[in-house]
């Protein structure tokens, strides 16, 4: 998975909405308290804390003014079972690594939401027997990390599974009831028409269960999109779907609608610049939408060396930028003012130079999660067990691109 023109009127509207939202109190490591409004959770960009070369959250906060992060992803264990893990491999019950990231964010006055699902792996809605057991697994995550916000990222292939979606929506409703004030977002695929058939079936499932989250967000990328105009068109169409599904008027539908973009080059080669982000931000604030986020902070930095959009990476954007430039649009949506940016030196890059190449990939060798190889001028890290699958051959394959070497 997932721009530059400030508008004083939009900024005033953002501040007004932010002040009107319910405030939560996050205790930081020193014992002091910081209030975060729902608007910050609605603005939180995605961050993978254990994969895709995780950046330092504190450095992002200092450089951009960001206060909230959407940590991804909670999945079922890759070996089977109905218990929460990070990325299918790291049990939440014994986790200390992500907990330390959260503690560091809170010590600086920030907070986190946690995202469930995503594109890869087995989801708990697929692995658990019913909504109650699915909710019980997610409650472990909420309890362990003291969460005030959670995101259900429902997309392929899970959202094609009727039983799994029934479990996920049912679990979301249970969590909402059992955790008063919990901010809940539901994220799904976007199309030019708003969302596709499976996304519409998910909305109908929510309606049948009487479940209303803070927002339903679409991801208008990886579907033939071309810049901001196509994205705002999809948001307009999705608003009409929300109206017709739930019987809401236009304003109510926008108040329950969200945008989740992808910064830079998408998986299918679409390009989304900072100018595109600003246009969508203006649309979101002018229509009083509930959420503006993107995939991902791991990608919110310039590739090294700059590749002019030639590849999609999990660790850089493939567009010219300073580190954490895209995060500043989330800060604006939350109603805050990002710090000024110092432009990169002319002809230079803000990212470190390329490192040495690892041992060359072999078609006959067997690799397990974490193994690193060199191939075609880049280093690659295995996400899971693999053999005879060329690095970079498939966009969602077993290899993570670590950059040029």
Distance between the termini: 24 Å
Structural class by helix and strand composition: alpha/beta
Proportion in β-strands: 15-25%
Radius of gyration: 20 Å
Mean pLDDT score: 87
What form results from the Cα inertia axes? Answer: globular
- Strand element count: 19
Classify the helix fraction into a percent range: 25-40%
Provide a count of the helices. Answer: 12
Largest sheet: 10 strands, mixed
- As residue ranges, the low-confidence spans are 1-33, 344-354
Task: Based on the model shown, name its key terms.
alpha/beta; 10-stranded mixed β-sheet; 12 helices; 20% strand
What features would you describe in this structure?
Helix 6 packs across helix 7, helix 7 packs across helix 8 and helix 9 runs parallel beside helix 11. 49% of the residues are buried. This protein has 405 residues and is an alpha/beta fold. The protein has twelve helices and 19 strands. The chain starts with 7 loop residues before the first helix and ends with a strand. Strands 3, 4, 5, 6, 7, 8, 9, 10, 11 and 14 form a ten-stranded mixed beta sheet that branches. A three-stranded antiparallel beta sheet has the order 16-17-19, with no helix packed on it.
Summarize it.
The chain is of the alpha/beta class. 33% of the residues lie in helices and 20% in strands. Helix 6 (131-145) packs across helix 7, helix 7 (162-178) packs across helix 8 (197-209) and helix 9 (228-246) runs parallel beside helix 11.
């Amino acid at each position: 998975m997932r721009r530059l023109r400030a508008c004083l009127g939009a900024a005033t509207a953002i501040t007004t909405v932010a002040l009107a939202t319910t405030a939560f109190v996050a205790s930081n490591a020193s014992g002091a308290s910081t209030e975060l409004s729902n608007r910050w959770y609605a603005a939180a960009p995605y961050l993978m804390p254990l994969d895709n070369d995780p950046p330092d959250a504190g450095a992002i906060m200092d450089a951009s003014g960001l206060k909230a992060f959407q940590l991804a992803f909670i999945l079922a264990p890759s070996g089977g079972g109905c218990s929460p893990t990070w990325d299918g491999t790291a049990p939440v019950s014994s986790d200390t690594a992500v907990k330390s990231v959260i503690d560091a964010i809170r010590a600086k006055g920030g907070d986190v939401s946690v995202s469930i699902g995503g594109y890869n792996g087995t989801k708990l809605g697929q692995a658990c027997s019913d909504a109650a057991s699915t909710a019980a697994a997610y409650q472990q995550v909420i309890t362990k990390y003291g969460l005030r916000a959670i995101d259900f990222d429902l997309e392929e292939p899970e959202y094609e599974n009727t039983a799994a979606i029934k479990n996920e929506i049912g679990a979301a409703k249970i969590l909402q009831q059992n955790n008063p004030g919990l901010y809940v977002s539901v994220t799904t695929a976007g199309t030019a028409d708003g969302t596709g058939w499976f996304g519409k079936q998910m909305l109908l499932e929510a309606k049948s269960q009487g479940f209303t989250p803070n927002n339903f967000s679409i991801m208008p990328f990886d579907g033939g999109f071309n810049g901001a105009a196509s994205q705002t068109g999809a948001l307009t169409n999705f608003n009409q779907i929300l109206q017709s599904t739930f019987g809401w008027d236009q304003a109510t539908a926008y108040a329950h609608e969200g945008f989740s973009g992808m910064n830079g080059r998408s998986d299918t080669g679409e390009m989304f610049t900072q100018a595109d982000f600003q246009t969508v931000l203006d649309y979101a604030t002018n229509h009083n939408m509930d959420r503006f986020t993107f995939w991902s902070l791991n990608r919110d930095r310039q590739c090294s060396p700059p590749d002019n959009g030639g590849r999609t990476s999990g660790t850089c954007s493939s567009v010219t930028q300073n580190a954490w430039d895209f995060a500043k649009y989330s800060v604006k949506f939350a109603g805050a003012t990002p710090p000024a940016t110092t432009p990169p030196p002319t002809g230079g890059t803000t990212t470190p130079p390329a490192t040495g190449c690892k041992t060359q990939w072999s078609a006959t060798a067997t690799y397990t999660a974490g193994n690193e190889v060199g191939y075609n001028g880049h280093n690659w890290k295995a996400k899971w067990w693999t053999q005879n699958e060329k690095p970079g051959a498939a966009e969602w394959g077993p290899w993570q691109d670590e950059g040029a070497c």
